[in-house]
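Data card: per-record layout.
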Amino acid sequence: SELMPPEVLSDPKRWVDKLETGSEVVPSSKEELKKAIEGRPVLLELGCAVGNGLIPMLRANPELFGMGCDLSAEAVRLLQSKEEYSCGRCLAFPCDITKGMNQPSEEHVSLEDQVPEGSVDFATLLFVLSAIDPSRYPETLARIRACMRPGGVVLVRDYGRGDLAQLRFAPGHWLGGDSYVRGDGTLAVFLTDSGLTEAFKAAGFERLSCEYRRQEVVNRGTGVVMPRVWVQGRFRRPNA
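The structure for this 240-residue chain is written out next.
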C-alpha cells in the first residue's frame, strides 16, 4: 500500500492509462540513473521477468521509478522491447542476484554495478528465494540490503512449508530439509516464517511482519482438498 496513490488504493480495479512515451531516454550509466531517480520513490523488482508486475506499478504511480532485474536475459530483452519501457522511469537488466562480479555471462551485470548504493525505497522478492540455495541467502540478502535506503522495505512472498507443490514431490527429489529438485533440475525450497525472519535479521534487516497465508483449493470433480501455503513478509533496513 505504501507504493500506491490514495485514488488507486480506494479503487484498485480502476482503469489506469498506459505509460506515455516520447523523447525519454533509458539511463545508460549509473550517473544517468542517479539523476533519473532523484526526488522519486524507487522500486527494485528482483525477478521481474517480462515486466508484468513492474509496468502496472509504474502506470499506477506516476512518481515511481522502477528498476527490474532477472536471471533470464531473454525475459529482460522482452521487457525492454515493450513500448512502455521507454517511459523514462524504468530500467531493466539481467542479473544473478546471488553473485557479485562472477555473473553468468557478459550480458549480465551485478546489483553493485547497476544499482546506486542506498537508492531503493522498496524491493520485491516474489517467488524468488524458493529458487535459491539457502546457503546463498546471507550474501544475497546483504547485497540487497546495500541497495536499500535507510528505512527501505523488502516485500517477500514465496512458497511455504506444507504447500501442495511440496507434498507432490516424489521421495527421489528430496535434497534434505525443505529443499527439492524438480524434474528439470531446478531447485525448489519451501520456506518457514521463522526461517525467513532469521535470514533477514542475520542480514541486518528488521522484521515488520512475516506470516503464513493459507488457502484450501477443492477439486470439484473429485472433492479432494489441496492445501496452498505461502509465506509473506516485510523487512526494513534500519534507519541507523
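Known properties of this structure: Residues 73 and 167 are 32 Å apart (CA to CA). The chain has a mean pLDDT of 92.

See the next section for split statistics.
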